[in-house]
Design goal:
Layout lengths: L10 H9 L8 E4 L21 H16 L3 E5 L1 E3 L7 E4 L5 H15 E2 L6 E6 L6 E7 L8 E2 L6 E4 L2 E4 L2 H10 L1
Parallel strand pairs: 1-2
Antiparallel strand pairs: 2-7, 3-4, 5-8, 6-7, 9-10
Length: 177
């Protein structure tokens, strides 16, 4: 599925993730919804016109971590199993996924430095009302390390987690490019 161009992906490709119970790992991450603080929902999911700062920051952390490591794919709108590492379990469509893609693309441009030039973001509608899944394909970056402009942190992908980089890791990454 991820060998295809994102523009070629269809609902059947997303359904195959669930059928094959694809496992999260170094190069793939699933999010059921836009992240939110405990007990809250992101404004976008409530019909708002913007993605909340908390969701934006968490999504950008994942993107930066992939770019600083091996590259990878972030799929938003997929529920996951409780086991570790988690597996794809079901589709949880996000409202107005095409518009959400544009918002995420702008957030990536404005909040990651240096910019990731070949980042791909696509929406796959799974419902007639335009709700669907958002897929972000992040290449391994030759311009690493990247950082989040709001938090000024660099992140790295370790197994199925994105974690803050230490100063030593940032120095090593800078020297090895």
């Amino acid at each position: 599925m991820f060998g295809k161009r994102l523009s070629e992906l269809k609902t059947a490709d997303i359904e195959r993730l669930i059928k094959e119970e694809v496992q999260e790992g170094t190069e793939i991450e699933f999010k059921e919804a836009l992240p939110a603080q405990r007990g809250k929902r992101d404004p976008w999911l409530e019909g708002g016109e913007r993605v909340g700062d908390f969701a934006r920051n968490k999504i950008l952390e994942e993107i930066i971590a992939f770019a600083n490591a091996y590259g990878g794919v972030l799929v938003i709108g997929i529920s996951e199993t409780a086991e570790k590492p988690a597996r794809a379990a079901g589709i949880v469509p996000l409202p107005e996924c095409a518009e959400l893609v544009e918002r995420m693309r702008l957030q990536c441009r404005d909040c990651i430095e240096p910019q990731i030039p070949t980042l791909e973001v696509a929406g796959i509608p799974t419902e007639e009302n335009g709700a669907g899944v958002v897929i972000i394909r992040v290449p391994k970056s030759r311009m690493a390390p990247h950082r989040h402009t709001a938090t000024r942190e660099c992140y790295y992908r370790r197994a199925d987690r994105s974690e803050k980089m230490t100063m030593r890791e940032i120095q090593d990454l800078t020297l090895n490019i």
